[in-house]
C-alpha cells in the first residue's frame, strides 16, 4: 500500500480563499481591514523568511500587514513597551512576536504582555488555559492546521488512538488538547518515553513534532494510519547540499500509512493559513465586543 499524500499546499490555499471571503465581508461591515502586526527581534535567517512569508500571505487575503524589525540588542523593556503600544492600537487585531527571541529577553514575559484578544499565536496563558478546559480560544496555528488535515483524511476521529510525539507549548500540548476535544484517545510521547515504537504501532493518528530528523521509523507505523509530520529539520546531504526533512522516515512510512504529509508542503503552509484565520477571528471578536 502507498499512502495518500495530504496536500497541505492545496488545503492551505482553500483556507486562504475562505479567509479572503471573510475579510471582504469584514471590510464591507466595518469599513476597515483586519490588521496583523509581526514583531521580529534580531536577524535569525529562518525567522526572517517566516516573517516575510506571513506578511505576504496577510496582504494577499486583503488584511493589513505591519512589521517591526528590531535589532538583536533591543532591551526587553523596549519590546514590552512596543507590545503595550500595539495592545492599545485599535487598528491592530493580531500581534505575533516571532520566536525564538534573543537570550536576554524572557519570551514568557513578552507573550504574557500581549492582549489575549490579539494573541493570534494562541500562546498567551489565558488562551492556553481556555483550550485546556475546552472554552473558545485563539488556538495555536500549527496544531490547528494539523487537525484540519487529520479531519480531511479521516473525517470523524472519535475514539481513534492518537499519538502526539513532542510536548512543547507551541505544538505538542495544544495538539493533544485539540485531539482530546475531538474525542480521540490521546497519548503524548516525548524524549523520556520508553519504547516509542510500541506507541507508534498502536496509533491510528501520529503527529510528530520533536525536531529530530527521521526519529519515527516507517516500519513502526500501523498500516493505514494517518501520519502528520511537523518536523522541519535542515540536514546536510553527503553532497554538501542541505535539504528540509521531517521527523518521520517518509520513504519507509509512505509504504504503510494510509495518509501522510510531505515535508515541505504539508504542515508549513497550513500554519500560515491558520494564522490568517486567527487574525480574522480576533478582528471579528474585537469588532463585536
Ligand atoms: N517561530 C516558529 N514558529 C512560530 C510560530 O508559530 N509563532 C511564533 N510567534 N514564532 C514562531
Arithmetic mean pLDDT: 97
Uncertain runs = none
The sequence of SSEs as H and E is: EHEHEHEHHHEHEHEEEEHEH
The CATH homologous superfamily of the largest domain is named: NAD(P)-binding Rossmann-like Domain
> How many domains?
2
Strands in their spatial order, largest beta sheet: 1-11-8-7-5-6
Shape: globular
What portion of the residues fall into strands of 2 or more residues? 15-25%
Classify the secondary structure makeup into a structural class. alpha/beta
**Fraction of residues in H or I helices:** 40-55%
Q: Main beta sheet, described? A: 6 strands, parallel
Enumerate the distinct ligands. guanine
According to CATH, what is the class of the largest domain?
A: Alpha Beta
In short:
With 289 residues, this protein is an alpha/beta fold. It has ten helices and eleven strands. It folds into two domains: 31-115, Rossmann fold; 141-268, NAD(P)-binding Rossmann-like Domain (Rossmann fold), CATH 3.40.50.720.
Polypeptide structure, described:
- The chain has 289 residues and is of the alpha/beta class.
- The chain has two domains: 31-115, Leucine Dehydrogenase, chain A, domain 1 (Rossmann fold), CATH 3.40.50.10860; 141-268, 3-Layer(aba) Sandwich (Rossmann fold).
- It is built from ten helices and eleven strands.
- It has helices spanning 8-30, 45-60, 76-88, 107-113, 125-132, 141-154, 172-181, 196-202, 250-253, 267-288, and strands spanning 4-5, 35-41, 64-70, 94-97, 161-165, 185-189, 205-208, 226-229, 233-236, 242-245, 259-260.
- The strands form three sheets. A six-stranded parallel β-sheet has the order 1-11-8-7-5-6, sandwiched between helices. A three-stranded parallel β-sheet has the order 3-2-4, with helices on both faces. The protein has a two-stranded antiparallel ribbon with strand order 9-10.
- The radius of gyration is 19 Å and the shape is globular.
- The N and C termini lie far apart (51 Å).
- Guanine binds next to strand 4 and helix 6.
- Guanine is lined by residues 96-99, 121, 141-142.
